[in-house]
Specification:
Blueprint (H helix, E strand, L loop, with lengths): L1 H50 L5 H10 L10 H22 L7 E6 L5 E3 L11 E6 L3 H6 L3 E7 L2 H8 L1 H63 L5 H28 L8 E4 L1 H18 L2 E6 L5 E4 L1 H17 L5 E9 L2 E8 L6 H4 L23 H11 L3 E7 L3 E9 L6
Parallel strand pairs: 6-8
Antiparallel strand pairs: 1-2, 1-4, 3-4, 5-7, 8-9, 9-11, 10-11
Length: about 425
């Protein structure tokens, strides 16, 4: 539960961080857009100032409209003023578009003493969102009116215009941010769904194996009682029953141990010891059993001590698993075990002349319940727990496990565990 909260906190902080970064980039983009806009307005202002300096049809019409002079035209004064507004509006629009500004605007022409006045066809309300760019005209119009004349360009909702200019940055950013959030949420949901599924499966397996332990114990006890009074001819049969009961008990214990490992419960009691005598005894016992199992076995242990921190029970079980696999997956088993110390590490290698493991299967051989198959048929009975258990044990001893195998040439599995250094 704590890890889930940590994941959620990290996710929320990451999303907020991405949002803040995107906001910062957007602010920088808006500032750059404002700078570019001001530069374009400056260029447009220079062109307008230059074009409206001389007397031509447009400035002449503006002069008549602004001075309320209708003597030259046969139209009414209102018509003259309307015509001048629209002609000037089209003229300014052309200059703005040529300089890369395509947004709504308004304008007004007025003198400093407000005696003369002309507005655009569309007039904006004078509020705090209105941005004004005044331009003092030169030439014909100031000389006609004998006063300073100002052409004022007005823009509103300019930030909306800037955002529209940044659509190439803002829209993809929002899309990618949304995609990241959706993907991360989906991954987290899948992760926790799988964890719940694994937990439920492990609980079911643990409950089932616990239920199996009682009848197995009863069978073992009943077998011992029968052996006490059984006729000689029945003792081999009872021996087989006892042997298989012990094997089933070991499998049940192994499943329970794997479940404990996956739930991260403490299952290893590591003590400082010399593992050499334990490994020696294990090899001698397997050597005695070799003729009965019709296999060849040899071992070679380097001289000296093997000082490690180990849980003897689990480490011996792991090595026995490797020896058992070497026996099961070989036609005429030839098995060897070597133990040596090298660079503060204990190396225990088990080699066989078995069928070998393909590169594809080597990628998954240590996964729980995975078994190497030949087509759809498993040649050797098993549960796919052995090597998974071995890997868990080795990891619990802060070691690592290596596998070298070629199909048709056998397999070598190495357990590498750090030695206890002097002074530690």
């Amino acid at each position: 539960m704590k890890k889930r909260r940590i994941y959620i906190i990290v996710f929320v902080v990451s999303v907020l961080g991405l949002a803040v970064i995107q906001y910062k980039y957007l602010s920088i983009g808006l500032n750059l857009a404002k700078v570019q806009f001001n530069q374009k307005i400056a260029l447009t202002s220079q062109e307008l100032k230059k074009e409206l300096r001389n007397k031509d049809e447009l400035t002449f019409l503006i002069g008549k409209a602004i001075t309320n002079d209708d003597t030259y035209f046969k139209l009414s004064l209102d018509s003259v003023q309307d015509a001048s507004k629209y002609f000037l509006n089209d003229f300014i629009t052309e200059k703005l578009v040529n300089n890369g500004i395509d947004t709504d605007f308004s304008f007004r022409i007025f003198s400093k003493d407000s005696t003369y006045y002309l507005t655009a066809p569309v007039v904006f309300a004078n509020d705090e969102n209105l941005i004004k760019y005044p331009l003092e005209l030169e030439g014909y119009l100031p000389e006609l009116l004998h006063t300073r004349v100002i052409l004022e360009l007005q823009f509103k909702d300019i930030n909306t215009y800037f955002l529209s200019q940044l659509n190439g940055l803002t829209i993809p950013s929002l899309i990618f941010l949304t995609a990241i959030i959706v993907v991360v949420i989906w991954v987290l949901r899948s992760f926790y769904w799988q964890r719940r599924l694994i937990t439920t499966t492990n609980e079911f397996i643990n409950n089932l194996t616990h239920e199996l332990k009682t009848p197995v114990f009863s069978i073992g006890l009943a077998t011992k009682m029968l052996e006490a009074d059984a006729p000689i001819e029945n003792k081999p049969i009872l021996g087989i029953i006892r042997q298989e009961t012990e094997r089933l008990k070991k499998h049940i214990d192994k499943v329970l141990e794997l479940g404990s490992m996956e739930t991260r419960k403490k299952v290893f009691d590591l003590y400082e010891l010399d593992f050499k005598p334990y490994l020696q005894k294990l090899c001698e016992e397997f050597l005695l059993m070799a003729p009965l199992e019709k296999l060849e076995f040899s071992y070679n242990l380097d001289s000296g001590k093997y000082p490690i921190k180990a849980d003897v029970f689990h480490l011996e079980n792991a090595i026995n698993n490797l020896l058992d696999n070497a026996k099961k997956y070989s036609g005429n088993p030839i098995i060897s075990l070597t133990g040596k110390t090298k660079k503060d590490l204990l190396h225990i290698e088990v080699s066989d002349n078995g069928h070998g493991i393909s590169e594809k299967d080597q990628m998954r051989i240590f996964q729980k319940y995975y078994r190497v198959s030949n087509g759809d048929l498993h040649k050797v009975a098993g549960y796919g727990l052995g090597l998974s258990y071995v890997k868990k044990v080795v990891q619990g001893h802060k070691g690592k496990i290596n596998l070298v195998s070629k199909v048709g040439q056998g397999t070598t599995i190495s357990i590498i565990i750090p030695l206890i250094k002097h002074g530690r």
